[in-house]
Amino acid sequence: MIVSVGFDWNGTLLADTTVSYKASKAALKALGGKQISLEDFRQTVVVPTLEFYLMHGCDENLMKADPYAASAAFHNVYEKLAAGCRTRKHARQVLEYLEQEDIQRFIVTNHTHEGVNRQLSRLGMEDLIDDVIANDDISPTLTGSSPKKDMLAGFLSEKGYTPGETMIVGDTEEEIEIGKELGIVTVAIMDGYHSEERLRSAGADHYISNLGQIIGIIDSVNASQAAGQGFGQYVRG
């Protein structure tokens, strides 16, 4: 039975894909990179983000001399615009449903504790989230590989959640790959940071077009597990 659901933050619960795209364009311009379309962004954005900026023509010598220059240029735009972002459709409804069903809700993200908690407070959602698994600063995802898998594995071990009891929901290949490596149920949501092509190629257990569909998936997964059929392939959207 599903007893805990983890959500990515950016692009999954928070509807900030366009904001991140605009901030990335500003950073590319500041660092001598080429301008890209939203489609290009969804097809190429990656962690570590340094690779993304180099991929689009930013000055390699400048980036190596000051890898935080891209982050500063990005966040100068992102934080201002993100202050006006709302959650994705049905986010609050789903979180309230999970709370009523006594299913634990947590966020697992490459963003920072400070950034996520500030937005949760602004949106009045602190009481709907049990735990936030995040970075203390931006450095892990700027120049190195994402620590998200190790953070999540440690969290699940600490809480005593088994793979079959946990679901992860995300809008990028990363959440799908992490979920598959850890053996937990994976749900990919469209229209976030990554293109549908990238998400489909990653091979999630389930695909959705809005967060409200998670309720039906949980019911389906629980029924399949009760019948000894594993996670199933309940695909919607």
Find the structural class using helix and strand composition.
alpha/beta
Count of separate structural domains:
2
**Name given to the CATH architecture of the largest domain:** 3-Layer(aba) Sandwich
Q: What value does the Rg take, in angstroms?
A: 18 Å
| Widest sheet, order of strands | 3-2-1-4-5-6
The main sheet comes to: 6 strands, parallel
Q: Which CATH class of the largest domain applies here? A: Alpha Beta
**Low-pLDDT sequence parts:** 231-237
Order of helices and strands: EHHHHHHEHEHHEHEHEH
- The number of E-state strands comes to 6
Through-space gap between termini = 23 Å
Total helices: the number is 12
Q: Spell out the CATH superfamily of the largest domain.
A: HAD superfamily/HAD-like
Shape: globular
| Topology-level CATH name of the largest domain | Rossmann fold
Helix content class: 40-55%
Overall pLDDT score: 91
Strand content: 5-15%
Protein described:
The chain is of the alpha/beta class. Helix content is 49%, strand content 13%. It has 12 helices and 6 strands. The chain has helices spanning 17-30, 38-44, 49-55, 60-65, 68-82, 91-100, 113-123, 139-143, 148-159, 173-182, 196-202, 214-226; strands spanning 4-7, 104-112, 131-135, 166-170, 185-189, 206-208. The protein has a 6-stranded parallel β-sheet with strand order 3-2-1-4-5-6. Helix 11 (196-202) links the parallel strand 5 (185-189) and strand 6 (206-208). Helix 1 (17-30) runs antiparallel to helix 5. The protein is globular and about 55 Å long.
